[in-house]
Amino acid sequence: MTITVRPSRPEDIAWVHAIYTPAVLHGTASFELEPPDREELARRREAILADGFPYLVAERGGRIVGYAYVGKYRPRPAYRYAVEDSIYIAPDSRGQGVGKALLAELIRICEAMGMRQMIAVIGDSLSAGSINLHRALGFTLSGTVKNVGYKHGRWLDQVIYQRPLGNGAETPPA
């Protein structure tokens, strides 16, 4: 079945909530300990869009099977050409190209926006799926922050991957 990546709509929040909740409760991609409700996820989506960044969903067979967005890497003005990506895939759709389709579209959009660096802050150095996805699309390891989070009874690393966008750091921004 074909995967369609499109801009999210307000009515997609129920699907986003259904994907994000088990990621918080059982996974390590997010360092949140309690899943936010739909209203909070809708507020977060609106904040991303208000900043002019993409918030995408992947649809297959009439069902949302993943979502992704970018936001400011850091709030200070010197970071304005760097974004951080976030990608979440429904558990039964992992390893099927959904993440790759979403991330490729985020990269395309961010390059068109004039962004120069995309950062992936991956929760847990054992997150092979996320690490392999980012590597496959040109990200390289920038570093590991050891034992920075505590969840599910264990210490978790954060692994930081980075990918230049467009001219990257070769030229000043326009």
The strands making up the biggest β-sheet line up spatially as 1-2-3-4-5-7-6
Global morphology = globular
Beta strand %: 25-35%
What does the average pLDDT come to? Answer: 97
Round the Cα radius of gyration to an integer and report it. Answer: 16 Å
**Series of H and E elements:** EHHEEEHEHEE
What's the count of strands?
A: 7
Q: Architecture in CATH?
A: 3-Layer(aba) Sandwich
Structural domain count: 1
Stretches where pLDDT is under 50 for at least 5 consecutive residues are: none
Helix content: 25-40%
Class inferred from helices and paired strands: alpha+beta
Largest sheet: 7 strands, mixed
Distance between the termini: 40 Å
Highest-level CATH class: Alpha Beta
- Report the CATH superfamily: Gcn5-related N-acetyltransferase (GNAT)
Q: What fold name goes in the CATH topology slot?
A: Aminopeptidase
- The number of helical runs is 4
Throw out a few tags for this protein:
seven-stranded mixed beta sheet, alpha+beta, Aminopeptidase
Give an account of the 3D structure.
- It contains 4 helices and 7 strands, in the order E-H-H-E-E-E-H-E-H-E-E.
- It has one domain: 3-Layer(aba) Sandwich (Aminopeptidase), CATH 3.40.630.
- A 7-stranded mixed β-sheet has the order 1-2-3-4-5-7-6.
- The model has no long low-confidence stretch (mean pLDDT 97).
- It has helices at 13-26, 38-50, 98-112, 128-136, and strands spanning 4-7, 55-60, 63-72, 82-89, 117-123, 140-151, 154-164.
- A hairpin with a 2-residue loop joins strand 6 (140-151) and strand 7.
- It is an alpha+beta fold.
- The longest helix has 15 residues, at 98-112.
